[in-house]
Amino acid sequence: MFEPPVQRLIDELARLPGIGRKSAQRLAFHLLHVEEADAVRLGDAIVAMRREVRLCIRCFNVTADEQCSICRDTRRDPSVVCVVERAQDIPVLERTQEFAGRYHVLGGAISPIEGIGPDQLRMQELVRRMDDEGIEEVIAATNPTVEGDTTALYLARLLKPLGVRVTRLASGLPVGGDLDYADEITLGRALAGRKEL
Amino acid sequence: MRVVWLELRDFRSYDAVSLEPGPGVNVFIGDNGAGKTNLLEAIGYLSALRSFRGAPDAALIRDGASGAVIRGGIERASGEVRVEIEIPAEGRRRILVNGKRPRRHGDVAAGIPMVAFLPDDLDLVKRGPAQRRDYLDDLGARLSPSVGANLVEFEKALRQRNTLLRREGPAADLLALEAWDERVATAGARVVEDRLDLIEQLRPVLGAAHSRAGGGSGIEVRYASAWAGAGVVAGGANRRLPALTDSLREALSARRVRDLEQRTTTAGPHRDEPIVELDGRSSRSQASQGEQRTIALSLRLAAYDLLAAHHDTAPVLLLDDVLSELDPTRAAAVLELLPRGQVFVTTARDDDVAAVGWRWTRSGHDASWQSDDAGGTG
Ligand SMILES: [Zn+2]
Asked: What is the enclosing helix (H) or strand (E) of B154?
């Protein structure tokens, strides 16, 4: 045990994902030794983020306003929605500049082991958007994991009866990499799913 | 391929031990409790990343220690691979291959071919289908990393579906269950496809191994599946995968009521039965103990031969206390492998293996293993 104020910070840091006891201690002692202004700036940034940022009422992306900048952008196609597990997946897809529709953040993927069923995700909110926004296509961009795949399959069963087209991101080879460095499993599946040219 | 050095810390009975095995046959001679099987278990862990005795990781940590460490250097044609494993009493184990975390654990087993012959290998023939499924799955994963990845994926999907059934039972969300059916079906079909491919590779090799071990020519492997008809199983390799996926999806949906009541998945690769037949009889129920022993041995010999051909190098061979139980013909079939690569043998009697290679003894529980000069300690 350290002095209570130090121990309190270590305990808080250790609760963060990917940070173990030892890293938490290292971070705490680092913050103890930097300029006070630097430490305060970090604290302020955390507080400001929590106070100023909330979830978009339409898509559950993070935003400083009622709606996120993507939902507010009138040039975007309202008929296509890309469904992601987490808000941090949106900037990744945005950087491709290939997608001009809107998003929907589910808040995770179906995983009975973790006690996450459709009711724990923003499925009903998504269903409501179909009618409200006249959505015609939903792209399931959940992670290529067993849970992400199953969530995509669930979305298809949930939304197809509403006359919505449900598509899944194709999985394939990383562009620009050499074939001989590609992951064998990715390569194997890409081979099995090959297309005529 | 060979193990060039091994270091253990707080592993089973050892507080610290290091060893530089010889390139050929290494015989560890000692009484029960001398720690010779523990040594083989550690060598096997370097490749399989688990105990060949099926022991949980916690059992590998020396009593009272905070964690076990296994380190080893393996020489391959492409250079030395250093495998380091830390098994802490609390928290996750850490695995490093050449200082880096392997992308998938299965890549380690697929890259470092080893075969273990164990005293209870008879269970492969005598006991239920689970032993034979594991045999096929382990061997398949050693031959191709994608087989290992397919298995991991299927097991994950199955565990999720079973958890849903167990927790919710008849109240389970039907759409979610259908989605899991689909995911289990695609993953399960890949597992069965891999097993069928392996059986085709195994057939000729197993036949040859069986005659070498003193058995007749009538050995055959069949794959019985309650959900995939014989026509699907026999289908050509290209048509088989979609047919298997469809069959499993249909079986899961046909058994929905039963699965919901029993709260578990009652059809799939995890219930299938690989069957070894001898002259058309089931070797499990209709073969003599002697015939069963020959078949069990042949299965291991065939695994060795397949791995040797696949890697174009002799796998590391682990023989745990098995030679003394074999009759001369069967022992000869095993000993035939000895000149081919590196071998680790444990025995209580030091006349089991002819005086070739390195003979290791230990004068007490705290002593280190010493080799005589037979192998040339230089
Ligand atoms: Zn939004």
From this structure: helix B145-168
Per DSSP, B265 falls in state -
Q: Please name the helix (run of DSSP H) or strand (run of DSSP E) that holds residue A24, with its range, or none.
A: helix A21-33
The answer to whether the CB atoms of A157 and B103 lie below 8 A apart is no
Q: Is residue A80 part of a domain?
A: yes
β-strands B343-347, B25-29 pairing:
parallel
Q: Is B183–A158 a contact, with Cβ atoms under 8 angstroms apart?
A: no
Q: What is the pLDDT of residues A18-39, one digit of tens each?
A: 888 889 999 999 999 999 999 9
Cα B151 to Cα B140: distance, rounded to the nearest angstrom? 10
What global pTM score does this model have? 0.87
Instruction: Tell me, yes or no, whether A90 and A129 share the same domain.
Output: yes
Q: What is the dihedral of CA A120, A126, A128, A130, to 10 degrees?
A: -160
Confidence of residue A177 (pLDDT cuts 50, 70, 90): low
Q: Which domain holds residue A146?
A: 74-168
- Chain A: nearest CA to B164, how far in angstroms? 5
Instruction: Tell me how far apart the alpha carbons of residues B27 and A177 are, in angstroms, rounded to a whole number.
Output: 47
Cβ-Cβ contacts under 8 Å, B103 against chain A: 183
Check: CB of residue B41 under 8 Å from CB of residue B354: no
Q: In whole angstroms, what is the distance from residue B178 CA to residue B189 CA? A: 16
Determine how β-strand B14-19 pairs with β-strand B2-11: antiparallel
Task: Record the tokens describing residue B82, joined without a space.
Answer: 């250093």
Taking only the tens place, the pLDDT of each residue in B39-77 is 999 999 999 999 999 999 999 999 999 999 999 999 998
Q: For residue B129, what are its two tokens?
A: 């289908």
CATH number of residue A159's parent domain: 3.40.1360.10
Asked if the Cβ–Cβ distance from A151 to B182 is below 8 Å, we say no
Q: What are phi and psi of B276, to 5 degrees?
A: -105, 125
